[in-house]
Amino acid sequence: MPRDLTAIALFCGSNTGHGEAYREAATALGAEIGRRGLTLVYGGTHKGLMGIVADAVLAQGGAVHGVITRRLADLGHLHESLTRHEIVDGMRARKERMADLADGFVAMPGGIGTLEEFMEAWTLNQLGDMDKPAGLFDVAGYYQPFMGFIDHMIAQGFLPPAHRDGIVADADPARLLDGLIAFERVTVPKWL
Questions:
Q1: Phi and psi, residue 168, nearest 5°
Q2: What are phi and psi of 50, to 5 degrees?
Q3: pTM value?
Q4: Euclidean distance between CA atoms 178 and 159, whole angstroms
Q5: Backbone CA torsion sign across 161, 162, 165, 167
Q6: What is the mean pLDDT of residues 57-68?
Q7: What is the DSSP string of 38-60?
Q8: Which pick of 10, 154, 173, 184 has the fewest CB atoms within 10 Å?
Q9: Which residues are paired to 88 by β-bridges?
Q10: CA dist 36 to 61, 65, 90, Å?
Protein backbone atom coordinates (compact mmCIF):
# COMPACT_ATOMS: atom_id res chain seq x y z
CA MET A 1 0.00 0.00 0.00
CA PRO A 2 1.47 3.40 -0.97
CA ARG A 3 2.69 5.66 1.80
CA ASP A 4 1.23 9.08 2.49
CA LEU A 5 4.26 11.19 1.72
CA THR A 6 3.64 14.91 2.25
CA ALA A 7 6.99 16.20 3.55
CA ILE A 8 10.54 15.18 2.61
CA ALA A 9 13.52 15.94 4.83
CA LEU A 10 16.55 16.60 2.66
CA PHE A 11 20.15 16.14 3.68
CA CYS A 12 22.70 17.55 1.25
CA GLY A 13 25.78 19.65 0.83
CA SER A 14 26.07 23.25 1.86
CA ASN A 15 28.66 23.30 -0.94
CA THR A 16 27.87 22.57 -4.59
CA GLY A 17 30.60 20.07 -5.45
CA HIS A 18 32.60 20.11 -8.69
CA GLY A 19 30.94 20.53 -12.06
CA GLU A 20 27.34 21.23 -12.99
CA ALA A 21 25.87 17.74 -12.45
CA TYR A 22 25.14 18.27 -8.76
CA ARG A 23 23.59 21.70 -9.30
CA GLU A 24 21.42 20.44 -12.14
CA ALA A 25 20.32 17.45 -10.07
CA ALA A 26 19.48 19.70 -7.11
CA THR A 27 17.28 21.83 -9.37
CA ALA A 28 15.60 18.72 -10.83
CA LEU A 29 14.89 17.25 -7.39
CA GLY A 30 13.51 20.53 -6.06
CA ALA A 31 11.31 20.96 -9.12
CA GLU A 32 9.95 17.42 -8.72
CA ILE A 33 9.21 17.98 -5.03
CA GLY A 34 7.45 21.25 -5.84
CA ARG A 35 5.44 19.80 -8.76
CA ARG A 36 4.18 17.02 -6.50
CA GLY A 37 3.03 19.49 -3.86
CA LEU A 38 5.34 18.03 -1.22
CA THR A 39 6.87 20.15 1.51
CA LEU A 40 10.65 20.31 1.59
CA VAL A 41 12.10 20.19 5.10
CA TYR A 42 15.81 21.05 5.18
CA GLY A 43 18.55 22.92 7.00
CA GLY A 44 17.21 26.38 6.18
CA THR A 45 20.20 27.92 4.41
CA HIS A 46 20.71 29.61 1.06
CA LYS A 47 24.12 27.95 0.70
CA GLY A 48 25.22 25.22 -1.70
CA LEU A 49 22.95 22.44 -2.93
CA MET A 50 20.62 23.16 -0.02
CA GLY A 51 19.80 26.61 -1.37
CA ILE A 52 19.45 25.36 -4.96
CA VAL A 53 16.91 22.70 -4.00
CA ALA A 54 14.93 25.15 -1.84
CA ASP A 55 14.84 27.72 -4.66
CA ALA A 56 13.65 25.09 -7.15
CA VAL A 57 10.81 23.99 -4.85
CA LEU A 58 9.77 27.62 -4.32
CA ALA A 59 9.91 28.28 -8.09
CA GLN A 60 7.29 25.53 -8.55
CA GLY A 61 5.06 27.14 -5.92
CA GLY A 62 5.96 24.50 -3.33
CA ALA A 63 6.40 24.90 0.40
CA VAL A 64 9.82 24.93 2.05
CA HIS A 65 10.27 24.59 5.81
CA GLY A 66 13.78 25.44 7.00
CA VAL A 67 15.17 24.33 10.35
CA ILE A 68 18.44 26.11 11.07
CA THR A 69 20.66 26.39 14.11
CA ARG A 70 20.97 29.66 15.99
CA ARG A 71 24.72 29.78 15.23
CA LEU A 72 24.21 29.44 11.47
CA ALA A 73 21.36 31.95 11.44
CA ASP A 74 23.54 34.43 13.35
CA LEU A 75 26.25 33.96 10.71
CA GLY A 76 23.80 35.07 8.00
CA HIS A 77 23.11 31.64 6.50
CA LEU A 78 19.30 31.75 6.80
CA HIS A 79 17.39 31.59 3.50
CA GLU A 80 15.06 34.58 3.84
CA SER A 81 12.52 33.50 1.18
CA LEU A 82 11.29 30.27 2.75
CA THR A 83 7.65 29.48 3.37
CA ARG A 84 8.53 28.90 7.01
CA HIS A 85 11.66 28.67 9.08
CA GLU A 86 12.55 27.73 12.64
CA ILE A 87 15.70 28.55 14.56
CA VAL A 88 16.80 25.86 17.02
CA ASP A 89 19.61 25.64 19.57
CA GLY A 90 21.88 23.09 17.88
CA MET A 91 22.33 20.26 15.42
CA ARG A 92 20.69 17.61 17.60
CA ALA A 93 17.57 19.73 17.97
CA ARG A 94 17.64 20.44 14.23
CA LYS A 95 17.80 16.75 13.29
CA GLU A 96 15.07 15.84 15.74
CA ARG A 97 12.77 18.58 14.48
CA MET A 98 13.36 17.67 10.84
CA ALA A 99 12.56 14.02 11.60
CA ASP A 100 9.34 15.06 13.36
CA LEU A 101 8.22 17.15 10.37
CA ALA A 102 9.07 14.66 7.61
CA ASP A 103 7.43 11.52 6.25
CA GLY A 104 10.63 10.41 4.51
CA PHE A 105 14.27 11.33 3.98
CA VAL A 106 16.50 11.94 0.97
CA ALA A 107 20.26 12.41 0.98
CA MET A 108 21.82 14.16 -2.00
CA PRO A 109 25.58 14.27 -2.45
CA GLY A 110 27.21 16.03 0.46
CA GLY A 111 29.88 15.75 3.10
CA ILE A 112 30.17 14.13 6.51
CA GLY A 113 27.12 15.93 7.94
CA THR A 114 24.94 14.65 5.10
CA LEU A 115 26.13 11.11 5.62
CA GLU A 116 25.73 11.31 9.40
CA GLU A 117 22.16 12.60 9.12
CA PHE A 118 21.23 9.94 6.59
CA MET A 119 22.80 7.15 8.64
CA GLU A 120 20.83 8.19 11.71
CA ALA A 121 17.55 8.02 9.77
CA TRP A 122 18.45 4.63 8.30
CA THR A 123 19.54 3.32 11.71
CA LEU A 124 16.28 4.41 13.38
CA ASN A 125 14.36 2.61 10.64
CA GLN A 126 16.53 -0.49 11.03
CA LEU A 127 15.89 -0.59 14.77
CA GLY A 128 12.16 -0.10 14.29
CA ASP A 129 12.18 3.21 16.19
CA MET A 130 10.81 4.93 13.10
CA ASP A 131 9.01 3.90 9.91
CA LYS A 132 9.94 6.65 7.45
CA PRO A 133 11.69 5.65 4.21
CA ALA A 134 15.21 6.86 3.50
CA GLY A 135 16.60 7.38 0.01
CA LEU A 136 19.86 8.27 -1.68
CA PHE A 137 19.76 10.60 -4.68
CA ASP A 138 22.62 8.87 -6.47
CA VAL A 139 23.71 11.72 -8.75
CA ALA A 140 26.49 10.65 -11.14
CA GLY A 141 27.04 7.47 -9.10
CA TYR A 142 28.03 9.50 -6.03
CA TYR A 143 26.77 6.88 -3.59
CA GLN A 144 28.13 3.79 -5.38
CA PRO A 145 31.29 3.65 -3.20
CA PHE A 146 29.05 3.95 -0.11
CA MET A 147 26.85 1.08 -1.33
CA GLY A 148 30.03 -0.91 -1.91
CA PHE A 149 30.90 -0.37 1.73
CA ILE A 150 27.40 -1.55 2.73
CA ASP A 151 28.03 -4.69 0.66
CA HIS A 152 31.33 -5.12 2.55
CA MET A 153 29.43 -4.88 5.88
CA ILE A 154 27.13 -7.66 4.66
CA ALA A 155 30.02 -9.82 3.42
CA GLN A 156 31.78 -9.47 6.78
CA GLY A 157 28.67 -10.43 8.78
CA PHE A 158 27.88 -7.04 10.32
CA LEU A 159 24.65 -6.35 8.42
CA PRO A 160 21.90 -8.79 7.34
CA PRO A 161 21.62 -8.83 3.51
CA ALA A 162 17.95 -7.80 3.61
CA HIS A 163 18.91 -4.48 5.19
CA ARG A 164 20.56 -3.36 1.96
CA ASP A 165 16.98 -2.98 0.74
CA GLY A 166 16.32 -0.56 3.63
CA ILE A 167 17.55 2.22 1.34
CA VAL A 168 15.90 3.50 -1.84
CA ALA A 169 18.63 4.64 -4.24
CA ASP A 170 18.10 6.21 -7.65
CA ALA A 171 19.60 8.86 -9.91
CA ASP A 172 16.19 9.99 -11.19
CA PRO A 173 14.23 12.29 -8.85
CA ALA A 174 10.78 11.00 -9.89
CA ARG A 175 11.77 7.34 -9.49
CA LEU A 176 13.42 8.13 -6.15
CA LEU A 177 10.27 9.76 -4.77
CA ASP A 178 8.10 6.98 -6.22
CA GLY A 179 10.39 4.48 -4.47
CA LEU A 180 9.88 6.24 -1.15
CA ILE A 181 6.11 6.17 -1.63
CA ALA A 182 6.16 2.43 -2.43
CA PHE A 183 8.74 1.56 0.25
CA GLU A 184 8.03 -1.32 2.60
CA ARG A 185 10.05 -1.40 5.79
CA VAL A 186 12.53 -4.24 6.17
CA THR A 187 11.38 -6.39 9.06
CA VAL A 188 14.32 -8.83 9.19
CA PRO A 189 15.98 -8.49 12.62
CA LYS A 190 19.30 -6.65 12.56
CA TRP A 191 20.95 -9.33 14.69
CA LEU A 192 22.64 -12.18 12.81
A1: -95, 125
A2: -60, -50
A3: 0.95
A4: 26
A5: negative
A6: 98
A7: PEEEE--BSSHHHHHHHHHHHHT
A8: 184
A9: 69
A10: 10, 16, 31
